[in-house]
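for ur thesis appendix - Translation initiation factor IF-2. copy paste whatever u need, i formatted it the way the template wanted (i think)
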Amino acid sequence: DFGIDLVARPPIVTVLGHVDHGKTTLVDRIRSSNVVDGEAGGITQHIAAYQVGHNGQKVTFVDTPGHAAFGEMRARGANVTDMVVLVVAADDGVMPQTVECISHAKAAGVPIVVAMNKCDLPDINEQRILTELSQHGILPSEWGGDVEVVRVSALQGTGIDDLLETLLLTAELQEFRTVDSIPADGVCLEGFMDEGRGPLAWALVRRGTLRIGDNICCGTSFGRVRAMYDDAGREIQEAGPSTPVKIAGLDQVPSAGSRFLVMDDIEQAREVAELR
Ligand code: GTP
Ligand code: MG
Ligand code: NA
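the 3d part is after this line
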């Protein structure tokens, strides 16, 4: 006993899959939001994290791009996650980036739940999808394997509760715990420049609690946390484990995938950033 209490933390679920198979529509549906209509060309180009509540439990979702060009972001998403939702459009089946995503999930060693999406479309051949999945090492539970395949329509909202229940059950079995009473660390999913607020890090807290005034280094950037925003853009004062948060106060735009850490003081934060 080191005198540190472990607390339950929300599971982090990364949504992976081939381009246009419906990842953002699914996350939008779960959040009751509409990110997808604002995307240029209907193509996701960034990784993004959101937290939702379901039956009193929180889940953090990481949406990733499916386009072939964004393999690095899929790998990054798979690396921060506890579980993967593999979205496979039922009218298209297992495609090249589906296969890539399966290998990311397997490399990360995390449980996979398949969301068989677009089940509202006519002439869906479910057996074909299950066959293709098993050919790539994903054996559906209905065929005696260990992967749940949940039928959903992100567009119409069917099967979503089923999917969330399956994810929460999987999370329960894993018992995700962490400490929230220590200085925070986490990972920067995306860095960007905001006209009004300067450099921002869209980050995910892994351990501990991040607070306004904390001195952090984030990759090669550093600064004092001046303001924090949740996934809906609301100002927040602190962010605990598994919380997606936008952090203002860094000296420059941090690079995606870099780790952030709370330091004792701003000089230490500067030194560590310069060493990286
Ligand atoms: P990328 O992030 O660019 O890889 O795409 P995505 O996987 O996020 O797919 P997106 O949510 O952008 O959806 C692609 C298209 O599929 C859009 O036109 C959606 O309206 C459509 N779509 C998504 N889910 C469903 C569904 O359940 N049924 C049907 N019929 N269409 C869907
Ligand atoms: Mg998308
Ligand atoms: Na898309």
